[in-house]
# Entry
Amino acid sequence: MADSIDSDHHTRVPTPELSLSERPLSSGDAKAELAALQEDLRQQTTRKSTQLEDGGTPAFEGGEDDEDEFNLLEFLKGDKERRDAVLEEVKRERAKKMKTGDLELGVDGGGDEKFIGSGARKLGVVWQNLTVKGAGGIKINIRTFPNAIIEFFLSPVLPLIMRLPKFAPKTKTLIHNFNGYLRPGEMCLVLGRPGSGCTTFLKNISNQRVGYLSVEGDVTYGGLAAENFGRHGRYEGEVVYCPEDEIHLPTLTVQQTLEFALKNKTPPHQLRLADEKSRAAFRTKVVEYLLKMLGIPHTKNTLVGNEFVRGVSGGERKRVSIAEMMITRAIVMSWDNSTRGLDASTALDYAKSLRVMTDVFEGTTFVSLYQAGEGIYEQFDKVLVIDDGRCAFYGPAAEARAYFVSLGFADLPRQTTADYLTGCTDPNERRFQDGKDASSVPSTPEQLEEAFLKSSYNRELMEDMREYKEEVDRALPQFEKELRFLHKVEKQPLVLSGKSPYQVSFLDQIWALTVRQFRLRIQDTLGLSVAYITSVIAAIITGSVYLNLPETSAGAFTRGGVLFLALLLNAFNAFNELPTQMMGRPILWKHRGFAFYRPAALSIASTLADIPINFFQILSFSLILYWMTGLKATAGAFFTFLALVFMGFLALASFFRLLGACCISYDVAARFAAALVSAMVLYSGYLIPVFSMKRWLFWLYYANPVNWGFQGLMSNEFGGLELLCVGSNIIPRNVPGVVDSYPNDLGPNQVCTLAGARPAQPFVRGGDYISAAFQYQTGVAWRNFGFLVAYFILFLTLQCLAATYLRLGQGMPAIQVYKKENKELKELNERLQANKADFRSGKRTQDLSALTTKRVPFTWEKLVYDVPVAGGKKRLLNEVYGYVKPGTLTALMGASGAGKTTLLDVLSDRKTIGVIGGDILVNGRKFGKDFQRGTAYVEQLDTHQYTSTVREAFRFSAYLRQPAHVSKEEKDAYCEEIIQLLEMEDLADSMIGFPGFGLGVEARKRLTIGVELAAKPQLLLFLDEPTSGLDGQSAYNIVRFLRKLAAAGQSILCTIHQPNALLFEHFDRLLLLKGGGNCVYFGPIGKDSQILRDYFAKNGAKCPPNANPAEFMLDAIGAGSQKRIGNKDWGDRWRDTEEFQQVKREIEDIKKAASAAPDVSDEKILEYAAPWSTQFKVVIERTNRSLWRSPDYVFTRLFAHVVIALLTGLTFLNVPANYVGLQYRVFALFIVTVMPAIIISQIEPTFIMARQVFIREASSKMYSPTVFSISQLIAELPYSLLCGVAFFIFLYYPTGFDTSSDRAGYAFLLIMIIELWAVTIGQAIAALSPSIFIAAMVNPFLLIITSLFAGVTIPYPQMPKFWRSWLYHVDPLTYLIGGLVSNELHGLEITCNESELFVFDLQLAKLAINGLGHLVGDEFYTPLQISFGDRYRNFGFLVVYTLFNAVVTVVASTFLRYAKR
# Structure
């Protein structure tokens, strides 16, 4: 029987309306129930102190509106009675117009009355013989680098191989033959241990079947087949699933997140309340209701955040997920562990809200919960208990406990019903009645299933299900008509298709998404600023290099260079769309399941949102570059230039998004991108004219959008332009000191060597020049603009189709991979398994006596913490006092956002921003630099090196954090004990992975605890919500283990949510916080929480005997939605009590006793426990292992090297020793400068993600930043060597370069050093950048500058003096090009072809004529300030640059952490 809260007496009183065994289904009774529970759902937020969340959420202060009663009946659906009336009116009007009568519409057509009116949206769920199979049955080994290579070469035949019986995936039955039904208006609680199949059941009952090998049996909704509610089904979005993990856009605020959801679920105006006729008013009112109902109105304008973006607290983020789910207005909802991270009071409020919504709107609700309190359990009608994929019980929730007792299990009255039912499936937790044991009581999953199938509950279930199904089938034709009608009426008017599952039109979806995407870009002010600034600086520098190009033959080729750079720099900025597209997939999949919008709408909206931002960026770039370089000075020419550049960007942006939509992972997309981008550059028509391309590859030229953009720019610029032939393009000509008989201008006996020149004509027409040099035409600029538009539309259309029909990675069940066992691991695992049963049963216990050697008290007093906010500062902790004595376990509790995590961060010295006041003392003294390594902090977020296994993670922590004098063998043995303690024997060699691949949520939490315990903390152990996400038994085991640690002398401070009374008693003391970081109580708890009960009772809040004190005290202080007891603020009340004065006296006594005792420690105070050499050895081993186990990352890098080199080698295959061949040799060598761009773009994300793990580990003083940065560099060396060798072989030999040992060896050395330079510069940029996006925005600027001043795109003599005097010499690529060009061309004999006697280049023109067609390569590069004698000097400079980058990386890693806490 459920309970409600009497607001006057705050005691639980039974409410007959909530009877769980026979709940009425009529909405009238449900409304009566709503009235009974109305007081529970009232928002009482009048509080005297400021309520802040842990991360600095702005305060919500109570006012007049706070006393307004929250009416859940009006939530989202508006006034139900008015909606019914409107719908009936619509029916009559339609019947009148259609002249079909009421019978056709089902108003009076003899159908079942339960399906009349809005009740037609009721959907009961029936599942028969539901069996779900997934991949399993074999242990999958961790993939490594060789696996990626093998898979690549086998990929063409891999699908065929996988069909062979020997290689076909092994199946594992996850759900065995489930049967049951749930009526509209009922709630089902799904219980089971982690891994038992709860999530699998919820997903499949919600029609989320992607990722499973097969789903057998039938699941029907209101008699309709599941296909109608699946992908592309008419009713998609009416059956939804809310996952356990929070998936949100972290840089949107809470209000923006919810308003976006509402934009896609806003009902038509006639179905809204009278005061909510406009969509905006409706959204505002609903968001206000939601935030108040969930107790988070103060987070309205705070970022949602995630583990890397500072935002709302974890509990508040969970409530945002709940609100978003409620907005879907789905009929059938499945909630997977949705109270994780919520405090007990809020969790109960949430369960009651679900109860009321289910009753009033007769929805069908499935919920799985861990650690559900009795008040939560009583809200449910049915309970499903799952044991290893088998149904142990399904029936009335009120009778489940008695059923298991009847089987022979001992009743445990102090255990909550939910924990008791789950415990009966746990061999180590369950207890049998006297005289019974496992042989006489069903104990295995199979026996429990068999016992249920033979029980009267199953017989009644099958009979009731048969009757209900017959009832539904009789009414199905009428019901389906009614449901279709209502589904159409509830859509916005512009939703044309009656079969569409979406509530708003496609255009409305695009608009809502465009606004969201635009906000994401605009709110990222740092990224936007960097993008604009780098673009402007690049334009200024490029414009200054090509300043005021002359309208002469000397400026012909350089004009083409300017146009090519302008197009290329902006077009390939679009590469940043690729990671954005990939990272947005989880949000897309979730919203697709909610039927918020079509995936195609997101594709279009992303483009529309980019247009204004990128247009102004390209406009600013174009204005500067165009007019500085002196391109054609007409408005028409400029705007044509701008249109072509901008459309080139849009076409390439759509192309990269298409890659992201078609590829299963970023690494696969990056492989394609590397190959295709290289082809686009090589076959753009600038480096190699189309007539010189190899016939088997020239088709790439015509398929290349960059070609059409560049061709259009050249046509626009050179059309109508006349170039005066001057200087080096006139032959014969005067040579100072040798010949002075020729006129300076073109004379009658001279010819112009510029391509397209006509005899005796001093001017060369621009059209003739581009026709002869490139085979381009004038007058095709706007034709080519049309081609770019066509490419843009084509790529966008394909992207929309791919996003709609491809489900790459969506809904894949989490899989675990394991390290391959060697002899040592096999022995260790066998020992763990041998001891497993004894430890579980309690026959053996761990010896913890040697765990702690330092037993010193820890105190804090007058503790305040202020953080800067806009307009001033906010106080998050307000004069908090407390202490932790050795051997005690202290609980830290409070509502979400009260400041619990903030207090732990401050006490553990983890805060990096804000001002801390007060005293924090260890043994009466200020703590030293060894404090952080002497404490262990189990943080709420589980951040680990994902490629490590569980055992490796424990050992890594032990090696670096336990004292150096402890032997490796002892540390290894202790780690085995930790594995045993945390019951992770089966996961010891499992790779940690990440959500969706690797350990599950519950296992990751235990891992985090184990990593800290492996350090053997000598001072303190801090834990932030160690039981969140765990089932009741795992939570109990964790707290019981903490109790053992405390008994061994460990000092422990632990935040905890939703503890049951049994769990709560394990703690010695309680520190209770309320909003604003105000202390409400600090003191002992007592047996049966009697001391705590007495304190609240004498202050006017008497806890009922059957209530959970942990829940009651939160209700009493007004932590949840309940109004606080009493008129006085509980924080003020605490400060006026004798108990508070006693705490202050106790702190003084502790300080006096500590100061009186001498500090006898003779240990040298060290910042790190391990010496530098040990740190380096351990860290470099892990880093090497991490890269070896990141096969896609390493192989993608190797693939890019091979493809670019091979494409270049085939393009310049066996280049001839003539003048054109000379140019092509230089261009082929110039391709080497492209490789740093590819390397840097891959190195940066890897380094920044590794830095995130380092920041977490550095807070515990595990290892120094120099160890981190140097290990990152050294670990890349083997793969850099491999990539360099591959690149050299596939580029150098096919092209036909000099193969003599000294020349080839030197070229190999330069390629290797530039490979290392690229790695180090990438790591340096990453170390200096706060995020991957910022680093990516810097790359184009850096690469264009280094390529521009390398001496190829513009020769040294033609550079402006300012840049030539310093930047040319500072550019590392200058020395690369100088070394490669002189190495290849030195002594190379060039024989000009007959057609090459007249060329436009100064140096070759003179030499070819005067030397009768013969010259040596040295004569080409000598005027360019390149010398063969400087080869090894150039190599030395590149070594110095590489070392400089490494130093920058080390320094930046040391001082720039970008970790704000």
